[in-house]
Amino acid sequence: MKKQDSYKPILSILLLIYIGSMIIINKITADKVFSEAENRRLEQAPKLSTSQLMDGRFTANYEKYVSDQFPLRDFWIGVKSNGEKALGKKENNGVYLGKDGYLMEKFKKPSEKIFKSKVDDINSLVSNMLNANKYFILAPNSMKILEDKLPPYAPNADELIYIDRVKSSIDNDIKFVDIYDALYSHKDEYIYYKTDHHWTTRGAYLAYERFMEYIGEGPHKEDYFNIEKVTDDFYGSLYSKSGFRKLTPDSIELYIPKQDEGIKVEYVDERKDSNSIYNMDSLNEKDKYTVFLGGNYPLIKISTNIDNKEKLLIIKDSYANSFIPFLTGHFSEIYVVDPRYYDEDLTTLMKDKSIDNILIIYNVKTFFE
Predict the structure, then answer these.
(1) What is the per-residue DSSP string for 103-172?
(2) pLDDT tens across 177-213, in order?
């Protein structure tokens, strides 16, 4: 007992040295605003006020601040991840570590209330767009198409059940574009990123082929494009969210038409434009998926030299960003709306721009969230 007790002062001293070192490092290190590894903004020091102190907001925000600004945070996240992997843990923060280094995000079944509200939202959204052709794509995520790569016995709701339910619940004048079989039949190809929640450009191309079949027009074959790998060093959203490290990065390919389509991209609210649908500067950033359209914006107008006077409105999440470039060879104008940021009336937009086609495109997990 005496021998064991002799270690206590040493352990206490080591603990004090560790705490003191962390305090000193924290004081001399400037707070970080953004975490490249986690791909998110970090909590900043909250301002002390009586109201926030009384209702507990200051304490809660300060705890988040201390956690986000903890010295050597990225290093300790890596240590934690490596330790959990060594112990055989296959799930962290709602993300599974599957076979072949695939990270796949857990899908939770929506409640009946949420399911009904989402279907009602879609039906209500297009109810006043009487003269337009309406299409809806609800894309499955990698964990449904690549189920064989999930860890054994990983609990997960069946996305296909809810995709089929949406298909049978939306109004009859909305054409549901079923892309499940098109993706599943190519599941052994690189159609989903390993470290990101999006489909790859190849996966988006397969969905584009199916969509063009639904609208009665032939898609461009792959030889219409120059397929260029622009990076093989992409760590995506699931890599950031999960904390799993030492994984093989993804590559990103661009399908660039061999013929000049005369692209002009206008970011309406930002009052800026570009002559390319790709933002190549994004390849130097953490979130390289923003090479497609530069990311998400309230309203984007894409003009082409396709002289058919066909116009398309796309209502979407980020899954559409790598899908949209394939459509520039078929429509004279494409209007892209992200409802998370767009506050104007869509019916007015359609009327003002004489738009006669609507495509709603979401991945199933984002749709229900």
Answers:
(1) EEE--PPPPHHHHHHHHHHHHHHHTT-TTSEEEEEEEPPHHHHTGGGSPTT-----HHHHHHHHHHHS-T
(2) 999 999 999 999 999 999 999 999 999 999 999 999 9
